[in-house]
Each structure stands twice: as C-alpha cells, then as structure tokens.
Amino acid sequence: MCPPAVPSHMADDGSQRSASADGSPTEGTPSDLDIARATDLRDVTDVAADLGLASSDVEQYGTGKAKLTREAMARLLDADPTGKLVLVTAMTPTRAGAGKTVTTIGLGEALARLGERSLVAIREPSLGPVFGIKGGAAGGGYAQVLPMDDVNLHFTGDIHAVTAAHDLLAAMLDAHIHHGNALDIDTERVVWPRALDVNDRALREVVTGLGGPANGPPRESGFLITAASELMAILCLADGYADLRERVARVVVAYDRDGGSVTADDLGAAGAVTALLTDAFRPNLVQTVEGTPAFVHGGPFANIATGTSSLVADRVGLALADYVVTEVGFGADLGAEKFVDLVARHGVRPDAAVVVATVRALRRHGRTDHSPDDDEGVPDVAAVRAGLANLDHHVETLRSVGLPVVVAVNRFPDDADAEVQAVLDHCEAAGAPVGVSTVYRDGGAGATDLARAVRDAADRGPDHFTPVYDLDAPLVDKIEAIATTVYGADGVDFADAALDGIQRLERQGLGDLPVCISKTPTSLSDDPDRTGVPTDWTLSVREVYPAAGAGFVVALTGDVLTMPGLPAEPSALDVDIDEDGRVTGLDW
Fold first, then answer.
1. pLDDT, tens digit, for every residue of 39-98?
2. How many C-beta atoms lie closer than 10 Å to residue 1's C-beta?
3. Which terminus of the chain, N or C, has less C-beta within 10 A?
C-alpha cells in the first residue's frame, strides 16, 4: 500500500503547521473549494492500486474518479470479507448537523496514517440539499472527498439514472392506463409519483393528464426528490444484478379496483427500469484530500429508507480494506438502528460504532429554556453536562445490540476548553472510549488518537450482535420494540389507518419484513422540539405502507416531506462559474 499523500497544510514530516485547537474553519483557514483545488489529485488507478485493484478493474471517468467494472465487482462480492466495518453515527443532532461525514472521512484518513489499509464509504450528495440549505455534501476542510465539485454535482450520473428509471416506470404505468388498462388499475390508487433531484415545493402535489383524452385521464399525483425514490433504496440494498431486477419487479406502483397490488413486473417494466440502473449499481471510487480511497455510492433518503451507502460498496470494501468506515444518516436512533435492522441482516455486520457528539448539540439538549435554533452561543458547561444524557442514550442503544462504541467529539471554534473537557471526563468515567476530532482543519492528523481507539474497538468486535427485533415478530411488535427500546417511548399509538395498513400487509405475506420508521431526527421522540431524553410520551404512527422492492415496511410518525423546498436564501445563490468555466460556491 502506498503511504498517504501529505496535504499542503502540513509539513513534509506530517507535523501541524497550525496551532489552532478546533476542528472547524477558523480565520485564515482556506475554504473547502480552495483546499480542493490546491490538492494534487492522484490518478485514480493509483488509488485503486492501494486497495489491490488492477487498472483493468476500474473504468475511469477522467483521471480522478472511476467505477468498478462488472467483473471486478462480481469477483469481490464472492470474495471473503476480511475487513472490519466501522459505523459512524451521532447523538441527536442540531439542525446544523453533527459532522458525521467529515468525521467519517477524517477517520479513514487517520487510519491510513496509522499504516492501515482503510476505505471510506459515504453516500452521493443530492442536488436538492446542495442547492438548498446544506450546500456541498462531500465533507469539508481537510476531510473531504475529491474532486469536490464533481462529487457534489453530476458525478458519474448515478442519481440521474435513478431519476430516469423512476420516471420511466411512472410513464409506463400511465401508458398502460391510457391504452386500455388491462390490469384494471384504480386511477385513484396510483401510488408511484414522479421524481426529480431538485428541491421544488410546487411539484409536491400536481394534476397529470390535463388536455383531453390524448393525454390520459386526469389524476392527482406529485413529485418526490430522487433520494426518496424506492429505486434508490433498492440500488443500495441489492446484492447483485439478479437481486436488483427481482427487487425492481416487486415495486408496488398502484392498486386495482379489487384492492390488489400492481407491481412493476405486472406492467412488464422491470427489465427496462433495471437496465437504466446497471451502471449506477457499480460503486464509484474517488479519494480524500490525503489520497485515502473512498467509495461514494448511492444516496437513499435517511428517513424513509436506510440513509447509508450501498450494500455493494460495503461488501466490496470489506474484501479490499482492513477497515471500512461508513456513515449512516441522523443519530443512532434513526440511522444506526436502520443499519442494524435493515442492512446488517444482509451480511455486513458492523464491528464497532462511532457516536459523533458536538458541544453545540449537548448545549441544546441540556438547556431547559431554548429555541430549536439556539445551538450556538456563549459557553455553558452546565448545559453541556446536562445534555450528556442524550449522548449516553445513543451510546447505550448501540451497546444494547452488542456493538463496542467510541465517542468522537467534533470540535468547533466556539467550544470552550472546559466544555470539551466535561465531555471527556464524563465518557472516561462511564468507560466509553472517547477522542477529540479536529479533522476539518487538520485532516487525518486531527483524529489519530481517535483512530487508535476505533481500531482497538473494531479489532475487539462485538461480543454478540442482536438486532432490535426478530423478523418473525408481528409488525406491531417490531414497531413497539423500536419505540420502547431505541427511542425510550412508553408505547405506541396506532391510528386506524396504520392498523388497517398493517393488517393488509400481513394478509399479503409482507409481515416478515423489517420496519423503517420515519421520525424527526431532532428529538428522540416524535416531537422535534423535545430535547434531551424525553420521558412520559407515546409514539404516534399514522400510516404504514410497503416498500416491497426495497424489502421493508415504512411506518410514518409525522409529516414527511419527500420533496423539500428551497429556503428564502438557498445555497444556489452562491453557486457560479469563473471565467475558466470552473464551478464556485459549493463550500459549506
């Protein structure tokens, strides 16, 4: 394995040139885009060679990105997975997030600095958040994947392929209805909308078929963002091309007038839809600022799906690397639970988990008088100490399924030393390995102590690994198990529509599927404004529906926007090009 490249902000011997002690941008720190453009990218074939891949194992998209060939992917999926899988999750975050992506990338860089063959596995950014609130989503500072502008925009076309496949299925459905409706589809029970990878609130509810008989019967429909498409979840859970097609075939697109489900296979659409996904199914290989290999693949919605990179990327990575560091969406109550109960059942069991904590989030969860947006402000050690109960809850959730846990304190510029020390003292007293991460500013060198703790935990591995529920349990019991043991609810209140949906699913033979609960990420409860560790509450489930192709049942607990809207001042206002045609403004 080649040694990691030394980034330009460090001396040739790897020592720090900066004396700042935080893990976020400070005055004088270059922007993400400046860092990206100042980095000399290694040829992607050299990055592949670090993983033992030949140049013939990758299909290059220029010199900085590539896809695995079908042959290499098939060979590696059949190989023994000898690596260790590290799952990066978080405590309940603020609306600004916790820095999981930065921590994931920086931890991969740090493991490489320790001489390990490491690999980062993260999701592909969606154009919706990139041009909406979040901005670029390829990490940040000296812990980002490159080429940054490519990864954030069109990349290798995977998300566009999912969009096209989703809309082809919608078009074939409407064409079937227009040309005689042999399947007797109830046009008021069509459940397959259209997709677009741009935030557009005006498309949430639309009427199609206007303009006379030639345009099909008018009906209410809508758009969702591509990341929320069931096809994206399928792409990330399939374990091969045959499985990919079988899952697409099972997708429920409508119901007939007798209440029976109509699938993509019933429409004869499964083959064509899958054909559009064949290249997107192959993992994308890029590199971090320090030259560490990274798979950036898939991008399922983190609430109504798994919110993690693809199963294929993880499995291939475990056959190539000593340590694969992968990120899951939101906190351990949502992202990690979904990985444990939806993904790990397919043979990619984590060996250790990292819970990212921030002083900002701890302040918010420790204060009794606050608004949802007051996670920044003056130091407040008392609030940090009070907020540690939320961190403890997430750590114990992961320990309860058998995973060894390491806490990563992602340090920001306004974090006081006393606040950070309070977290370290608490974790050490509780017997939880902990480390401070400053990877945004320092790259892998800002997490080497953390990486040692993570390596030790992964090498030790789980003493047992037990999902939250058994698959043969009734759907009601599965939902109640998650609510009570993971969220801390007293129980579950099922709306009549949810109970009807559960009964229908069990009659259809789908009762043995795992459950994906859609819940607010900003609270352990289903109330986004309840901070800390809420008590005396009941989870309210209003609707349950199948994602039969993806292989799980979705339980909705609140209003879920599958098509976000742009804010008053979207990140798109900052995006432009310079006189050479290079994209600017994709920084955080």
1. 999 999 999 999 999 999 999 999 999 999 999 999 999 999 999 999 999 999 988 789
2. 15
3. N
Q: Concatenate the DSSP letters of all residues of 214-252 into one string.
A: GG---EEE-EEEGGGSHHHHHHHH--SHHHHHHHHHH-E
Surface-to-core class of residue 211, CB atoms within 10 Å of its CB (0-12 exposed, 13-18 middle, 19+ buried): exposed
Pair 327, 373 in one domain = yes
- Pair 129, 167 in one domain: no
- The end-to-end CA distance of the chain, in Å, is 32
* Predicted TM-score (pTM) above 0.90: yes
Residue 130: closest CA among 574, 582, 580: 574
State the total domains in the chain: 3
Q: Which domain holds residue 134?
A: 32-156+280-460
For residue 175, is it within any domain?
yes
Q: Please check whether residues 249 and 310 belong to one and the same domain.
A: no
CATH at residue 142: 3.40.50.300
Residue 571 pLDDT class (50, 70, 90 cuts): very high
For residue range 345-373, list pLDDT tens digits in order: 999 999 999 999 999 999 999 997 765 54
DSSP-assigned beta bridge partners for residue 494: 541
> DSSP states of 362-375 as a string?
HHHHH-SS--TT--
CA 152 to chain centroid, in Å, comes to 15
